[in-house]
Specification:
Blueprint lengths: L1 E5 L1 E2 L21 H4 E4 L4 E10 L2 E10 L5 E10 L6 E6 L4 E6 L2 E2 L4 E10 L4 E10 L7 E12 L2 E12 L2 E3 L10 E3 L2 E15 L4
Parallel strand pairs: 3-16, 4-16
Antiparallel strand pairs: 1-12, 2-11, 4-5, 5-6, 6-7, 7-8, 8-10, 9-10, 10-11, 12-13, 13-16, 14-15
Pfam family, one: DUF7781
Organism: Eucalyptus globulus (Tasmanian blue gum)
Protein name: DUF7781 domain-containing protein
């Protein structure tokens, strides 16, 4: 069963995929410049999940390939109920603790998520928030998507991908400086950003 969840990080984003433009303002001419798909993920996650009396306990091992080489481990607690309001995240390497809310719908296409955390190394409290949406901006349309594929009971793979695109356009004119027929074939820059392997263990109590 395949599940999809569109989301574009407007604030506090983790990396971005930019459309490559010519410094002189000229449009790409070759097919490789107009259409580019990168299938090498920059993030690899291995997640272990255990359900204990209505609480999901998760251990995440996160490997980052680009633009930086990094590793993180996380311990995550969150309720299993559909109306859950929070999740608890602990990062032992950075000694960081956070409580993050669920995504709160603001409009039909816009959601807000807030969180508060404490870093034991810096002895500091921090607040974070972000807006998420499946719509694009800045003159370029963008789709961010997570697709989950169930391999077998207890084993799931989740793929995070994105696509920046400019739709094809056909223009023309008669009695003007424009040509009678002009076609812009559009652009597509897509990448497979994240691959997650999720191992789940149901509550046996």
């Amino acid at each position: 069963m395949v599940k999809k969840n569109c989301s574009l990080l407007i604030f506090c984003s983790v990396g971005s995929l930019n459309m490559e433009t010519n410094p002189a303002g000229e449009e790409p001419t070759s097919c490789d410049e107009r259409y580019n798909i990168n299938l090498m993920p920059s993030e690899l996650f291995l997640k272990f999940r255990k359900e204990i009396q209505g609480i999901r306990v998760g251990v995440n091992l996160e490997f980052y390939n680009a633009p930086r080489n990094d590793f993180q481990a996380k311990l995550v607690f969150k309720p299993l109920s559909p109306d859950r309001l929070w999740k608890f995240v602990y990062e032992p390497i950075h000694q960081d603790v956070r409580i993050v809310s669920k995504k709160i719908p603001v409009t039909k296409f816009l959601s807000l998520q807030v969180g508060v955390g404490h870093n034991f190394q810096l002895n500091a409290i921090s607040w974070k928030w972000k807006f998420t949406t499946c719509l694009g901006g800045d003159g370029v349309s963008q789709i961010r998507n997570k697709t989950t594929l169930g391999l077998c009971p207890g084993v799931d793979f989740r793929f995070g991908w994105r696509a920046d695109y400019v739709l094809p356009e056909i223009t023309g004119g008669l009695g003007t400086d424009e040509p009678l027929f002009n076609m812009n074939s559009g652009q597509l820059q897509a990448s497979l950003d994240r691959v997650e392997a999720i191992l789940s263990y149901p509550d046996t109590v």
